[in-house]
Amino acid sequence: MESIAQLKQLLANQVEWLSHYGADSDGGVTRLLYTPAWLKAQQALAERMREAGLDTYYDDAGNLYGRLEGTEHPEEVVLTGSHIDTVRSGGKYDGAAGILAGLACLRRLYAQFGRPKRTLEIVSLCEEEGSRFPITFWGSGNMTGRWSMSRIPDVADAEGVSLGQAMADAGFGPGTHRPCRRYDLVSFIELHIEQGMVLERLELPIGIVQGIVGQVRLTFEVCGETNHAGTTRMAWRKDAVAGTAEMTLALEREARSAGDPYVATVGKMVVAPNVSNVIAGNVLFTVDLRHPDALSLEAFARRIVERFYSIAAERSLQLSHRQWMHADPVPMNEELVHRLEQTCKSLQVSYHEIHSGAGHDAQLLSAVCPSAMLFVPSRAGISHSPDEYTDAQDLAVATRVLADTLYQLAYVGGQRQA
Amino acid sequence: MESIAQLKQLLANQVEWLSHYGADSDGGVTRLLYTPAWLKAQQALAERMREAGLDTYYDDAGNLYGRLEGTEHPEEVVLTGSHIDTVRSGGKYDGAAGILAGLACLRRLYAQFGRPKRTLEIVSLCEEEGSRFPITFWGSGNMTGRWSMSRIPDVADAEGVSLGQAMADAGFGPGTHRPCRRYDLVSFIELHIEQGMVLERLELPIGIVQGIVGQVRLTFEVCGETNHAGTTRMAWRKDAVAGTAEMTLALEREARSAGDPYVATVGKMVVAPNVSNVIAGNVLFTVDLRHPDALSLEAFARRIVERFYSIAAERSLQLSHRQWMHADPVPMNEELVHRLEQTCKSLQVSYHEIHSGAGHDAQLLSAVCPSAMLFVPSRAGISHSPDEYTDAQDLAVATRVLADTLYQLAYVGGQRQA
């Protein structure tokens, strides 16, 4: 393989190149599912894949594959890649980094070693973010059975264009290309930006993801008494804002004292009547809780809900709540994680065992094959922003780790393995 | 004068009668400035005033007066009354109680004692609430020089109708009636509902207002860092919502420990981006502070602002603030307050020395003549609501106190007095 310096240059160039598809005037990137920018990006990637010697094909959902057919076990597919879509005004790295790193790996592996024993594929997943339509993981979901071409969700974008129509307009949909569902995958490794500050603060180039956190999201409604801000003594108030403030601080304290990797967030708060001289009678607010262990997460959620009800009772406030999202934690495959760690060690690359606080395609793929993830550092933890940035040196190091791991999985040995 | 039982029945009937003008289907009352309901209410009141033997007239702003010309000092006017307008979906008592009590007083004083030595007038002020146009005290403001017919504010209602146009449509405006500005007032006494819970909790029928609180209103902007709710460790967050929660609780604690009559309210809060899975980078919130003593209020405001900046600094949040309202406390006239207290004592009516936490027309009138206020209890402290209620017995007792005081001011003695 080329040197890290060469890889660094290559990847830096490729990141810039791909970011032109859907480039915003402010330096950001907007590549929403099935839009012209998205389609051109997939077509340009397909061209690059073919230049690298890969066979390319789409599936019905618009996932783009580049394939190196295996010589001994063509029916066993080792897969890498990530998603091509972005949020509105997103960055150049989220999703793209994993596709470009994977493509660099397959190009060089093929150039150096020819065809693998197992089939090696790279995928540019059509959608992960849920930025155009109110669904997420449309790409990996169709591969794994969470979504299906036979039941296209009846959703529309902000302009009223349905998902089915947008898909057809872009040249995709049932029967247009290969079926989406994959039954031949033996491993999936996704390289992705961390979107957090852990690696940067630790000054480490690589995070080996141990698991993707579980999430619980709840909405609480606090009902007090709307009253006159001038004539109502402090002791007689049933102030929904003050009650919510106490709950918010209790949540923060609880998460802090539970320690990493617990995170808890009140991100949304709607006050009524929301007038400066009226004591608020009503507040709706959300709580987002995450932890990689299902039992810890559940216990944490229970503790929070109990604490909130006790605060409400002390303040004579009415409280109600609704849990509207629950996603179990998804551990990464132990053997693959171990293999990635061994690769880092053999390459003398320092790494950090990390948990992903965000959702990723790998959590869907992990339902159908052993899956793992490599994280690269995000400068200042920023993502979903034009300021998203990952140092090309870090990206090159991680790409080398990915290439070596893919080599072991697809070129070495012959037994079915994780 | 008639017995309290008779007065009680009379006032209960009159409250119901007046509430038909602008009656909402839910039992509330909506009488916005210069609307047909408002005009009919003024016209109906004028009719009742004339039935009671009063001379009636309007001023250019639409304030309605009923007058008993003084026999000895017609140029010295003792005034009572309150405002006829309501908030949207308001109650039957806010403003109306003071007009109806005053009218009952003048009717009976005239019937029993004939014309007074000083002129005695009742006023049905055209506007106090600021519910149709974004200005308040249009009625008493025109009497006292805060507002002027020569500079009609360029404001419009929700439908785009200007104040000047609405006034003209209702038959008012510069030169249509008598000039608004009054230079002949020697005292003003306003009876009004408390709009708080103090009298009800103390089980007292009357509050003698010592002063109207000063108000400071501020808007704070907390700037942190918008970040991913899943990937940002608790320790690394700059969470504008959590910071605001800590400030809100600190404010509540400070006001509670300062004790009555301090009140402090966060009534409005706007979070950005206000999304459940994003740590909020920005919160705008308001603080409403009130206290009857100017120096205490100022010190309190200074303490709060300092505390907030220290909380922001501890959390590495940026804070800015703007004080957009400052109204000095308005003490009521000592001699009039003393006279009201003496009247209560002589009638063996228990009373409470109270501060008004809300603004009232009396605070404008106090700039041009000795002014005072009588409060009657509000059930559960509720006002600006169809549920607004004051027991007719309490209203009758207060009306008796008002009548006796007006008698002393207008019928007894001859020197100019407070």
From TrEMBL, chains A, B:
Top EC class of this enzyme: hydrolase
Family indicated by similarity: Belongs to the peptidase M20 family.
Free-text cofactor note: Binds 2 Zn(2+) ions per subunit.
Keyword DNA repair set for record: no
Binding site residues for Zn(2+) 1: 83, 94, 192
Documented EC number(s): 3.5.1.87
Protein name: Amidase, hydantoinase/carbamoylase family
Species annotation: Paenibacillus curdlanolyticus YK9
Domain of life per record: Bacteria
NCBIfam families: hydantase, PRK09290.1-1, PRK09290.1-5
Cofactor: Zn(2+)
GO MF annotation: an example: metal ion binding
Residues at which allantoate binds: 217, 277, 290
Family annotation (Pfam families): Peptidase_M20 (PF01546)
Keywords assigned by UniProt, alphabetized: Hydrolase, Metal-binding, Zinc
Keyword Metal-binding: yes
SUPFAM superfamilies: Bacterial exopeptidase dimerisation domain, Zn-dependent exopeptidases
Binding of Zn(2+) 2, residues: 94, 129, 384
